[in-house]
Amino acid sequence: MLTVLLAGCTATPNEEAVAAPAAVPAPAPPVASPAVASPATGRDERDSLAIDCARAIASRQEDDRTIVYITLAEPGSVRPGQWVHCAHKDRPPSPPCEVLDIVDGGMLEARCNQAAS
User: Fold this and answer.
1) What ranges does the record give for the region Disordered, renumbered to this chain (predicted)?
2) Whether this model's pTM surpasses 0.90
3) Which residues are registered as beta bridge partners of 97?
């Protein structure tokens, strides 16, 4: 009888694939969605804005902080009182610095915990 059933089957391989129920994959385990990183606001040292710096020059020490002058690669919308750090493509970012003033055509005067580079 088994021989009779197999002999009566005339479906082509493509028809069998269409006729056969598709295997249902097991559901993937739930993945915790990564926290969406909000853009920095520059409101404190831990939330410093990443800026593109052409160069930063340490000028002097004031108490336990270093005063630096930062030349921006492109003039930006940085204001005194904000915290920034130089984001470099070829090396780690500089330490966060608090912008004290904007001087000499857009150069930032800032106060950092360590000398920025």
Assistant:
1) 21-44
2) no
3) 84, 112
